[in-house]
Amino acid sequence: MSESIPAYGPTPDRPIRSRIQLLKAKVKDERLTATFTEQPGVEAPADTHTVTCGSLVHPDLSRAFSHLVPHLCLLTDQLPTTLLPDDGDKLDDVQEACIAPFAVTGITYGGSGERAGFTLIGTRELANGHQLNLTAPFLTNDEASTHLTSLLRALDTEVEAALRGKCAPNPQLDLFAPEAGGADNHDDEPADDLPAPRRRGRLRQQPA
Asked: pTM value?
């Protein structure tokens, strides 16, 4: 994260973990820009911030956005439902190839109460090498499937983690890694022992 951007959350002068509510988030050139409100204390008023992280996004955040791609394809009517998986199902090779040109690059939250919801934003790479910008219709939270809702929560978690300092590892830091055989050497350990998240499915179909 850029040094000009403060770390949001608890500090020695503010031990209470702040509450962050995401309003907008997008990734461009592998850097996160987010608009959000932050309430630094239980009784404190919420402040609104828009920040761009100077560090590259962590792979976990990139994955969280990529899991939303089938939903973007469905909402923008770019692919037929027969080429999209059911909720929670793993993509087969044909489906993987079909969604490969698509990317989810941002999300905007809006509305309130029963009309609270979100808009997915993304791109499609065309055969001529150009990019088609895609903006899905606004979807209320009640219209989203349970699986899609869980993906959005995972995305929010990764965005907040990025605002609190989680970013891609800096390869230059490897220059200062302990020598082989040292007490802190972890060369034999996997970089990420967490299982890959399950593939996502399509939206719940609404009655006509």
From this structure: 0.73
